[in-house]
Amino acid sequence: MGQAKPPSASLVDTGLVHAHGLASIVTLLIAATFGIIVSIQLLLPDFGSNVAWLSWGRLRYAHTQGIMFGWLGNAFFAFLYHAVPILTGRPVTSRRLGLWLFGLWNFAVMAPGWVLVLAGVSQPLEWAEFPPIVDVMVVVGLGLAAIQFLPGFFARGLESLYVSSWYILGALVFTLLAYPMGNIVPEVVAGASGAAFSGLWIHDAVGLFVTPLALAIIYFVIPAATGRPIFSHFLSMLGFWLLFFLYPLNGTHHYVFSVIPMAAQMGAITASTLLGLDVLIVVTNLFLSLRGTGFVPRDPALRFVAAGTLFYLIVSMQGAAQAQMAVNQAVHFTDWVIGHSHLAMMGFASFAAAGGLVHAWQRIPWAPYNARAINAAYWLMTAGLVVMVSDLTIAGLLQGQSWQAGAPWVESLEVTRPYWLVRTLSGIPLAAGFLALLWGLTSGPRGAGLREVENGVGVEPVAEVAPRLAIASSTVETS
Amino acid sequence: MSSGHGRVLGMSYLVASVAGVVFFVLSVALLGYWPKRVLDEQTRAMGPEYVLELTPSERRGRAVYSREGCAYCHTQQIRYLASDRARFGAPTLAWETRLDYPHLWGTRRIGPDLSREGGTRSDDWHYTHLFSPRAVVPQSVMPAYERLFDDAPDRPRQQARDLVAYLNTLGRARELAGPEGEARAEAGCQCPDDELANMAFGGELNAHPARTRRTHDTPPLLPAGDLARGRQLFAAHCATCHGPTGGGDGPGATGLLPAPMNLAEHQYAPARVADVLWNGVAGTAMPAWRDHSPDDRAALVSAVLALESTRLEPSLPDNLMELGQRAFRANCVQCHGERGDGSGSAAAELPIAPTSFVRQRPTLSAALRALRGGIPGTPMAPWTTRLSDAELVAAAQYVRTLYGAPGAESR
Hints:
heterodimer; A: mainly alpha; Cytochrome C Oxidase, Chain A; globular; B: mainly alpha; Cytochrome Bc1 Complex, Chain D, domain 2; 15 helices; 45% helix; elongated
């Protein structure tokens, strides 16, 4: 396990990796544009407000759905087309199915989803804003993805699966189960009860779809790029199962101090704390696996993934803390939470997805690859993210303080204004980073990525420290 | 790896996989289904028997609210927290949300919570605010919804009317349930020792600092307001409607009926201004400003008093006074009261309290304008058909003499 075999041209359908990869970055640019516009509208509220589809609420819906399904969805699929054949030793189910999935995801989910939301056909439910007709398409898409990617794992037998395989299995199965929680149940279960189900999905969207696939990428890219197994297979699996046990039990922490029964709130808060401990296990294992690659690994894919791991640690500790009642009452409803969600989706998940994308791209023999642009993308995205999250965190604390003080409401807006300006400005390096990523994967010589891999871009620093890691590596080679 | 080890491992994966599904089912059962059962039971035990459905217009308004993402800046969930309760009122009970398909609780509060918005603001305030939020709240970051209007805040289209109708339903069911409803909810809660659950009861239902009241429990005015600070606050909060010099001609004024008071053409008793700042003017768009500190309210009082025009009023012959008094006694006392302090026998029935001339002295031209044209949007009608021109002038002059009469500060 662990040692990713060099991709064989006969196994990996590089065309589908490429198609989903490009679609992911194009949708990322569109979704980020929506995000930048809504951030500008908080500074200039009249900007675009008399054009219905440009109004804040609708763009806000389109922003998060675009990030989750368009960018992360496509990037995950691109990674799966690369990784699943390597993990299972056989190609995905069918290329034809792949074309259908690509078409469905982008032209029956993303395109109509966006058009409908902007036209005013939507649901006011978080992470579930696409209207029910599009929800059906999402479920069909997830079903097709399960047929496309999962059979190989079962053919291989569960006992010999690498941890990434488990995450992929878990993500595709549980997202299918969890999706209706937030998308359908609140439409038929009213008010507070509906909110309880909404809470499940708000958390499961991140916990059972985004997080497992991002972790699947991280667990895959680290050994594949370093040529060294993951530090501990046992810790990997422990982390995996704890995550799948604990994540779904977190939902109600989005409604602390609400009328939802206190026992459910306390249960969710406890689960949140335990989840924080679980993430410590996962991240310790990942960091130990990254030992010797340097603070900033040379391989850009590995570097994205390493940064994603660090952000995962921070965002999870933050999450466990903000579920606690004392913290929650000060920061809930504020920009702190917006900072938190950007750290999760932009920091952890997007860095992991970008890492997976770059890693897969390097191994497409005919794909253009521009190392300088990808390097620039990494630094621009890191800079933008760090500024944005720090800025929103401080803004959230100030808003909470203003509310607690009982000051007139508008004072909480006045104190926020400079921070909103910085947040919008932080979108410039982020957007430039996304453009650089697109540039990095569409310019440069064809096959440059593969040459770089062959020259040992990710491996070289490891060679220097490998002797030190010999013992740790040998002890985990048990399975 | 031995094969025995492999079998055990394989079994453990099977067990773990089953456990994974079990935990997911558990999450739905514990955090979804079980809370739903508890909340359904609470709704049955604590909610009024008769469910207050939304009208078709209110339902359409809710769809507009949903479509435009209002819930992403305005929560509809008052938490069981002192700070939430102090600002918005009684924490949200389960039964209040029983018709919310889907819920609109929200997770970010850029604007204030709207759970108890019904009855907090007047319709014309809402229309003006939707048409151009910064025309009434200069610091607002809300998008303008001009597209729901025909080019003017007082010409709302159907969707704007529906939306305001919906806003007026927020918190309505609980208000209409009245004290009986509160008693039933508290009894049904069966939680005498649960401090948190009890936060839902006993306090003010709608504690919104802008909500107008007709009661007069104004806290005593601090003696000296800081005029400079007051002018600053006036510019920041009041000038949008009352205009920079208090002429009632701010950008927010166009859609409001009754129009914002022209503060320059009135002389006010300080207590009158303090009263309006604390209680608002019920029946008009003038909200209360209870969220401002006592110092700031005193400063605002100073700023408002300083707006009074210094123009000399014409002096009229004394014999007019008697005519004015007669006209006033014959026509005005039912509403404005014998002493002109707004305490007439019909006053309590009127949607907007009649002016107390004891605490508020209009200029002659303002009084005459009101007598001749009435005050649109209020019960004050034109008197040109009932009174002669001389009587009108005389009555206008007479009400000016009532200002500051002894005993008038008692109200």
